[in-house]
Every structure is written in structure tokens, then in C-alpha cells.
Write a structure and sequence with these properties.
Distance between the termini: 14 Å
Bound molecules: inosine-5'-diphosphate, magnesium ion
Oligomer: single chain
CATH topology of the domain at 2-8 and 17-85 and 116-134: Alpha-Beta Plaits
Number of strands: 4
Order of helices and strands: EHHEHHEHHEHH
Strand content: 15-25%
Helix content: 40-55%
Structural class: alpha+beta
CATH architecture of the domain at 2-8 and 17-85 and 116-134: 2-Layer Sandwich
Largest sheet: 4 strands, antiparallel
CATH superfamily of the domain at 2-8 and 17-85 and 116-134: Nucleoside diphosphate kinase-like domain
């Protein structure tokens, strides 16, 4: 089954949105395969956002993502990558539909509360940046029987 990497960013942790955000992923039927509260170091930030290191917003993004604890998640489900991107909403909260996490809880692109991998390949890469193989659990998830044909 497809896995993706998601992150509850420092602003959302400080604002007490962790439970609400995880609730939305869980209610969709995604299985939590890995989860931890952690600090993102500068080194991790540069690995994670390698494609953005030369963008003008990168210094701000690096300060933001390293500013406090985050919750790192590995989520699994059919089309998990696309489902999490849909639940998260557009990158700029101004464009994010109501009912999405960014649409409901954020106002600015630089404080957009969540991350979700943009492809199966980046998911595998991001999972390997944030988790050891032992921290990602495979277990029998009983709701699958009722979620999928
Ligand atoms: P994504 O998080 O929806 O995949 P990306 O374009 O990959 O969006 O950008 C990564 C992150 O960098 C965004 O989630 C946001 O936190 C930050 N970011 C992107 N564009 C800007 C910008 O123009 N100003 C400030 N921060 C930005
Ligand atoms: Mg991205």
C-alpha cells in the first residue's frame, strides 16, 4: 500500500492543532505507520527542501521549520500521497479550499501548518530522511477491509 510523509509544522504544534490535524488524516482512513515529535535541524531542513534551497523564500522557510517541534508522520493508504495533498489543501492558504487543513487553519504561505510529499518518489525520500526503517511499522490495519473493495 502507498505511503506518504506528512509533517505538522511548528506553528500548528504551538497553536494546539496536532489532534485536529491527525483526526482529519485518520478519519479519511489513513493508517499511521510512523509518528514522532522532533526538532528539524538546519541539516534536515536542507535535505528535505533541497529543491528550494536557492529560492528567495528559503531562509524564511528554514527559520520557520526549525523554530520549534514538529510532528513527523508516515501515513499509508490507497493513493496516500494524493489524498494527503488534497486534505492539506493548496500551498498558499489563500487558494486553499475551505474544508482543507490550510483553508481552515492558515492565512499565509509562510505559515501553512502542514507538509505532504508531492509524489511517491519524494515520499520515499522524505520518509528515509526523517525515519529509520524500524520506526515505520507494518501492521494489520483492520479498517482496510471496510475502506477498500
Ligand atoms: P508544498 O508544501 O505545498 O509542497 P512547496 O512549493 O513545495 O509547497 O513549498 C514548500 C514550502 O515552502 C511551503 O509549504 C511553504 O511553507 C514554503 N513556501 C513556498 N513558497 C513560499 C513563498 O513564496 N513564501 C514563503 N514560503 C513559501
Ligand atoms: Mg513541496
Amino acid at each position: 500500500m502507498e505511503k506518504t510523509f506528512a509533517m505538522i509544522k511548528p506553528d500548528a504544534v504551538q497553536r494546539g492543532l496536532v489532534g485536529e490535524i491527525i483526526r482529519r488524516y485518520e478519519q479519511k482512513g489513513l493508517r499511521i505507520a510512523g509518528m514522532k515529535v522532533m526538532m528539524v535541524t538546519e541539516e534536515l531542513a536542507m535535505k528535505h527542501y533541497a529543491e528550494h534551497v536557492n529560492k528567495p523564500f528559503f531562509p524564511g522557510l528554514k527559520d520557520y521549520i526549525t523554530s520549534g517541534p514538529v510532528v513527523a508522520l508516515v501515513l499509508e493508504g490507497k493513493n496516500a500521497v494524493a489524498e494527503v495533498r488534497k486534505i492539506n489543501g493548496s500551498t498558499n492558504p489563500l487558494d486553499a479550499a475551505c474544508g482543507t487543513i490550510r483553508g481552515d487553519f492558515a492565512q499565509e504561505v509562510g505559515r501553512n501548518v502542514v507538509h505532504g510529499s508531492d509524489s511517491v518518489e519524494s515520499a520515499a525520500n522524505e520518509i528515509s530522511i526523517y525515519f529509520t526503517p524500524e520506526e515505520v511499522l507494518d501492521f494489520d490495519f483492520l479498517p482496510n477491509k471496510w475502506l477498500y473493495e
